[in-house]
């Protein structure tokens, strides 16, 4: 590995987009290790993303590549080893940004197949790796074009493409070439049963529960759930139809495994707009279902119900004492109070548990110190005691450290069941959140309790929610309102 400057430690990044044989991460590591030993180099940190695509069409991000970026930003990496450029990325925009980061941090890149180290401060070296990145991205686009072309051809010919779906089996000749697709002897009857039961008015949840009780698991052994039953029944392939990019392009080359008319009826039932107003649909669509306690029964949770015929009205009702409250009124008021609280600067504190252990205290101090250091640099820059370039450099170093410190403190203070609930910009995101996610925020942040109305009237009385309190708060909402001089 010739280079004009001495190098003792080289960090490695390994990636393979599939699990097949070839240049596996094990082979990449072996060849890089052998090459490093021949140059008397020590292998430092090794970042590995097995079975991860690096093209711009990838469906998930690479965790170790993200860790590598943070590692480089920290200044810990001096030389990075790659088996070949395409292992780093097949996304031109991502690769250019990565090269810029390495150049800014003084990181050189060793490409094993090139048998050389690239110094990105040199124009020709940067150009060489930039060109390699464009070639890698172009190859990815060519592969994608071939795959899409194959799928279009299969669609025109009525042939299956992609992963084998539940309910079917595929036959191949002695050379491994596709012959035909046909009904699976054990799975196809299950599909027919699901379609039939939907047309008979049975709920998705009941069907899933029954399949699980009969030990009829999904592919891979996972238990059935109502949403999976729905996804399965809606597949046009069961009715012998080919759909390509959302368009029905004609009949398939295989025989339908369900009665086509029955399947169409099932699809119509599952996709009709009014389906959300059924009893169970009402519960799911209204986000305070099972999130509000009855003030009379104390423990009973209210559930959404639809009543009336001439003028249907959705309410939340207690199954214990029968107390009723308007769904629209309750949701509007809770949403108003919740979003106002989440709009405060200290909103994130609502999700944390109260603790004073040493680890949390140390994490809080680390975060405070880093934030304080950043504020000091801001003050120096504002007073023009440091140049804008110097401030930008220190800010670029401190911000990733602050993010890591915030995440560390979050892991120590946020209960595991709420770890995936982001408190960032909730008010702005709220209108687009699904009902189930809204319900999770409510359960995590507030103990809601509604009492019977003290008086009849068309206007919702906020005092009915006075006994509610923010999770972990010693004061009720009514006590907060009184302290703030607000009428309940």
TrEMBL record:
InterPro entries registered for this protein in UniProt: DNA_bind_recomb_sf, DNA_bind_recombinase_dom, Resolv_N, Resolvase-like_N_sf, SSR_resolvase
Domain Recombinase: 165-276
Pfam families cross-referenced by the UniProt entry: Recombinase, Resolvase
SUPFAM superfamilies cross-referenced by the UniProt entry: Resolvase-like
Domain Resolvase/invertase-type recombinase catalytic: residue ranges: 9-158
Gene3D superfamilies per record: Putative Large Serine Recombinase, Chain B, Domain 2, Resolvase, N-terminal catalytic domain
Entries under PROSITE patterns matching the protein: RECOMBINASE_DNA_BIND, RECOMBINASES_3
GO molecular function: DNA binding; DNA strand exchange activity
PANTHER family xref list: DNA RECOMBINASE-RELATED (PTHR30461:SF23), DNA-INVERTASE FROM LAMBDOID PROPHAGE (PTHR30461)
Official protein name in the record: Site-specific DNA recombinase
Organism annotation: Micromonospora peucetia
